[in-house]
Design goal:
Layout (H helix, E strand, L loop, with lengths): L3 H10 L4 H8 L3 H7 L7 E3 L6 H6 L11 E3 L8 H4 L8 E3 L8 H10 L5 E3 L8 H10 L5 E3 L8 H16 L1
Parallel strand pairs: 1-2, 2-3, 3-4, 4-5
Helix pairs in contact: 2-3, 6-7, 7-8
Length: 171
């Protein structure tokens, strides 16, 4: 159990990017021990990520086991294979303008992160109806799906995904 003074710090840390969180963890021994708390890394903002390999390789370590939110934007280094490293605890994923993500990567995320409530795939040109249907199949708790700029996603595909989600919700 954390002392009360740390709860406020954890709330502030939820709004910091990964680079800033790492700096906080290196401040002193006491803050380093705080960085080992699961809540410290619950939200990861990896916008501006230059090297997906190094940063995403860390996701399989225990300190990220309770991560619930991850945001990666405009990262052309992010590949479908990297998405298999995402912890299954994720509830919110933002992969905006990560142009090398395909339907296979979206299916990996959907199958692995079944508690997703929000998924943003804004401006991903290799995502199509096939990926959207997999999200509808696997992510039963999804309440927000952003597909703006995904030119291979058609109105027919989104309608089919919506019907699939509605049938699943009625079951």
């Amino acid at each position: 159990m954390l002392p009360p003074k740390w709860h406020a710090i954890l709330c502030v840390c939820e709004h910091l990017g990964a680079r800033d969180l790492s700096a906080v963890a290196r401040t002193c021994r006491e803050w380093r021990s705080l960085s080992l708390e699961p809540g410290f890394w619950s939200r990861l903002d990896l916008r501006g990520l230059a090297s997906a390999e190094r940063a995403l390789g860390l996701l399989s370590t225990p300190k990220f086991s309770q991560t619930t939110s991850i945001a990666i934007q405009f990262c052309d280094a992010l590949l479908d294979a990297h998405l298999a490293l995402f912890p299954p605890t994720l509830r919110e994923i933002v992969l905006d303008a990560c142009h090398r993500i395909t339907d296979a990567g979206v299916e990996t995320v959907a199958a692995r992160c079944r508690q997703l409530r929000k998924l943003s795939l804004y401006w991903n040109n290799h995502v199509s109806d096939k990926g959207v249907l997999k999200v509808a199949l696997f992510c039963r708790h999804l309440v927000e799906l952003s597909l703006s700029g995904c030119h291979r996603v058609t109105s027919n595909g989104t309608s089919r995904a919506a019907r699939r989600a509605a049938r699943r919700g009625a079951a």
